[in-house]
Amino acid sequence: MTQVRCERRSPADSRGRLRAAFGMGAVAALAAGCMTSKVEETRQIASPIEANESIVLLKKPQLEGAGTEEGFLDCVQERLGGELVHPEEGQSAHSRRAARTPFKIYGEQEFADALFPWFEPSTAPANTDGLRVLLQRPGVTERLHEIGVRYVVWVDGNTRKTDGGGSVACAIGPGGGGCFGVGWWEKESGYVASVWDMRNATEIGSVSADVSGTSVLIGAIAPIPIITPVRKTACDRLSNQLRSFLVGDDLAPPGSAPAAGVGAAGGAGSR
Question: pTM for the full model?
Answer without folding.
Answer: 0.78
